[in-house]
Amino acid sequence: MNAPKIDPTILPAIDLLTIRTAEDQLLANGAVVQQTVTNLTLTHPLIEQCYFENTILSENDFERLELTDVIFKNCDLSNGNFEQASLYRVQFENCKLVGATFDDGYFKDVSFKNCQLNLANFNATKFTAVTFTDSRLSDVNCMESTLKQVQFTTCDLNNADFTNTNLSKQDLRTCEFKALRVQPFDLRGCRVNELQALYFANQFLQLRIE
């Protein structure tokens, strides 16, 4: 996976609200630190080579958002609408994205580390070279999505919905869940641990294991 091509230590401070009034407006080459921007509507904002830290971006409507070479650290993007977003070389660390919507999106070279993504929506989204590490994804909706070179490591996937999403190349052994919504044919080839195998055997085969 390719990391964002930026050096946060040399980026000048910038104000996110400089792009609040125009469509297709570009925000580039800057650091957004300790800012609060909520309930803002932007159409197709483009953000390139930027660093966000300790910033609240919840409840915003950034439809068709494009992020390229961007880092988010300790930020809150909860309940935001980011439908049809495109993310290239983006990192999220210690971020909160509860209830955020990324339906019909495209993610390439994106990482989530120690993030809260409960109730987030990634339906019909294409993922390429994406990692989820030490993150909470309970009740996530990821239906009819495409996963290519995607890794889930020590994540909470309880009650996540992967209906019509092929998990054949996924390794879920380090993840935890008591329930997972998935079609049995989409699990072929998926690597699971013993407890997970027992769950699926009971779920799909109604086997009684004593």
Automatic annotation (TrEMBL):
One Pfam family per UniProt: Pentapeptide_4
UniProt name for this protein: Quinolone resistance protein
